């Protein structure tokens, strides 16, 4: 007998509402998440600029954002909102703790949030500090008190399994079949490897990066979305390249070395 499917009513009262979808840097998302949900604090201010002499020109309409808080050091205050014209029609859905699902609206504008040129240097500095901090591993050494070899003794039932014959030790261990599943590296370590790869060449396809890093493709995509820009057209179509701020970080690091 098949399992009964759970049926949930969809609330569509706000289905026709126009909403904006914006991709923001990680540091901005963390700053907003640190503000309590019941707080009345303003997170940011969106500024819309329009050239009255050329109102029909698409480039005359500009969007920018000014951050209100300053909880994170070196976080830029001013950002440009680059609007996309061609994107797949999308809708926004929400789910409450009680399992109620609602349609919040249709995506009217899609934006990519990037620091403005006047804040780019401090943003690069913050990215370098974050990368260097993630590469530092805090390893701990635990000293075991002298227990007269209790921890070194074989466990019950293992005495007959441990061979003392040196000839048996030289026997080759059976070769294990290669495992298809890849193990994820530490994120900071993997970011360091990615920067080294992009120093070797500026553009990489996802399949090439999977082979070079031996990492799961989905895990690589998560990091590539933060560090890189995907080329949808042009001579480098289908490849990733570092965002401008990270390219500058690599150049500064190479110069310092």
Distance between the termini: 67 Å
Shape: globular
Mean pLDDT: 78
How many helices? The count is 7
Helix/strand class: alpha+beta
Largest sheet: 7 strands, mixed
Order of helices and strands: EEHEEEEEHHHHHEEH
Low-confidence stretches: none
User: Gyration radius, to the nearest Å?
Assistant: 27 Å
Strand content: 15-25%
Record field, number of beta strands: 9
Task: Give the fraction of residues assigned to helices.
Answer: 25-40%
Pfam family, one: TFIIF_beta_N
Organism: Centaurea solstitialis
InterPro entries: TFIIF_beta, TFIIF_beta_HTH, TFIIF_beta_N, TFIIF_interaction, WH-like_DNA-bd_sf, WH_DNA-bd_sf
Domain TFIIF beta subunit N-terminal: 17-131
